[in-house]
Amino acid sequence: MLLDISKKKINFERIFKSFKKNLIDYRKFGLKFLFFKFILKYSDLYRIRGNFLSLKETWDLVINTNKSIIRLGDGEMLLLRGKSIIYQNYSYRLEQGLKKIIKNYDKNSPYLLCLPVDFIQASNKKLKESDRDRIWLNSKIFYMTFFPKKVSYGNALIFRLMNYFSINLKDIYENKNIIFVANEES
User: Fold this and answer.
1) At 44, is the secondary structure helix, strand, or coil?
2) Does residue 96 sit within a domain?
3) In a domain, 1, yes or no
4) Which of 7, 132, 159, 174 fits a 20 to 30 Å CA distance from 165?
């Protein structure tokens, strides 16, 4: 039986845009990126399992090892994809610097990479229901493609819980110079 497309509208412009976007992603990020993009985009129940620390484990590690914290949130994930964000224009040099931090991250690094664990580990269905899939689905793809898997990642949501953060901040950074950058809501 042949498919009769005469009664169906085919949006060739949409198909072309999707093809063009995937071709750009392929050229910039490679086949592995496209593979995970396909798997994650069409699998609602897929959940990433990684070595992610709880809020308490994140602070304990920082206190006991004297490591610096590097938080990679939605803005940094967009910068990694070549996008500008409201308070930072895209820069190739910045993108490459972030990628170097990620690529060189291991258990002996002087810093702890912190990721928004709740969003990275959420099922795609849950992200879609909360209208967060546009940002976090691509971040999950980046995690699967570029991030080392045999290391622990801190919980970046600790910065959103300022009460927890401010109570513990003194214990961690007493008698040290620190730079803390946050938005008004943190």
Assistant:
1) coil
2) yes
3) no
4) 132
Total domains, the chain: 1
| Cβ 71 vs Cβ 159: under 8 Å | yes
Question: To the nearest 10°, the Cα dihedral for 161, 44, 74, 17?
Answer: -160
Please indicate, yes or no, if residue 92 is contained in any of the structural domains.
Answer: yes
* Residue appearing with tokens 């699998």: 43
Radius of gyration of the chain (CA): 19
Domain that holds residue 64: 55-173
Whether 19 is covered by a domain: the verdict is no
Please name which of 73, 58, 70, 72 lies closest in space to residue 172, comparing C-alpha atoms.
58
Q: Express each pLDDT in 141-173 by its tens digit.
A: 888 888 898 999 999 887 766 555 555 666 666
Residues with Cβ < 8 Å from 63, sequence gap 6 or more? 171, 172
What percent of the residues of the chain are helix, what percent strand, and what percent coil, each to the nearest 5?
A: 55, 10, 40
Nearest of 109, 118, 108, 124 to residue 54 by alpha carbon: 118
pTM of the model: 0.70
